[in-house]
């Protein structure tokens, strides 16, 4: 039986990792999931230790100093893993972030010779590589030592090569696997095959937090201009984040009376119903590793507008069901809306036809193929 060690620093923050581990558990492998955390309140989050051959270890070892001293952080995590896991029984390490997790996997490989591969996500590219100059060479070492790097977003390999790696990495990076995040099977039940005519009012939808990165204020300014040309409703679902107060302030103004605000919704069936009552989903974040809400919207027949070079960009090149725009370019947003409206019925059908690729069942199969390929001999 394969013994797979996951190092997953983002595990307690989102359910998507537990969805992957749940599917992998069905494939007859032993999983140890190591989760470094900063607070005892994170212990037990998304716990799946009830699954057969699955053990989740929450390690409350992170502190403020680790935010400053990266090498100390990964060394402390490495030592903790050594003390609580018999690494001689581990066949393969899966690091879910290059710097936070891959750095630890790199230390494990140096001492124990265990193969590892690492995902490269938004924070790796747009925080660590971009701003932490002193860690770039170490990041390159992790990439060189990994058996494989995995990209969640199709555009990230070329961005990484162009900005932070020498041409020597070109063949390796451009041939790296692209594996998306998956969507829970609940979203694939009772797919929305009914037509959703636009009629005399176009209904736009945004779901997410109200951080500056998500650019919700920019979306509001755009929608205000669009509302002078067509009958429009915009629904915002979510909240919190460092732009929450600014967004709420705008919503109190008469100019934004066409906007509906709903706080965060966790119930899947309620969200399905909400998606189905709208026509187009828009989220133009500045940076986005993947953006699962795009896939949720598409599963309910909504065409989506997203940021070029981020998130799901590259997965739907030949279709109008997902159109990329620059995050701060209103002209491109207007054109994207027009293009979707012209091809609306086809865009809806394309969304529903393409969405099964993002099921966790298919995603877990892609990972299993890698695990088998890179088992330590």
Question: How is this structure best described in words?
Answer:
The chain is α/β, with parallel strands linked by helices. The chain has two domains: 3-182 and 360-373, Glycogen Phosphorylase B (Rossmann fold), CATH 3.40.50; 185-358, Glycogen Phosphorylase B (Rossmann fold, 3-Layer(aba) Sandwich), CATH 3.40.50.2000. Helices cover 40% and strands 17% of the residues. The protein contains 15 helices and twelve strands. The strands form two sheets. It has a six-stranded parallel β-sheet, sandwiched between helices. Strand 1 (3-7), helix 1 and strand 2 (30-37) form a beta-alpha-beta unit. Helix 1 crosses helix 15 and helix 3 (70-84) crosses helix 4 (102-112).
Give a summary of the structure in a few sentences.
By secondary structure, the protein is α/β, with parallel strands linked by helices. The protein contains 15 helices and twelve strands.
Which helices and strands appear, and what pairs or packs with what?
Blueprint (H helix, E strand, L loop, with lengths): L2 E5 L8 H10 L4 E8 L16 E7 L3 H5 L1 H15 L7 E4 L6 H11 L3 E5 L1 H10 L4 H10 L2 E4 L4 H9 L5 H5 L27 E7 L7 H12 L4 E7 L5 H8 L7 E5 L4 H9 L3 E3 L9 H8 L4 E4 L14 E4 L4 H13 L1 H11 L5 H14 L4
Parallel strand pairs: 1-2, 1-4, 2-3, 4-5, 5-6, 7-8, 7-10, 8-9, 10-11, 11-12
Essential attributes:
377 residues, alpha/beta, Rossmann fold, 6-stranded parallel sheet
Give the amount of beta strand, in percent.
15-25%
Tally of strands: 12
Major β-sheet annotation:
6 strands, parallel
Named CATH architecture of the largest domain: 3-Layer(aba) Sandwich
CA-atom Rg in angstroms? 22 Å
CATH topology (level 3) name of the largest domain: Rossmann fold
What overall form do the CA principal axes indicate?
globular
Helix content: 25-40%
Biggest β-sheet: strands ordered side by side in the sheet: 3-2-1-4-5-6
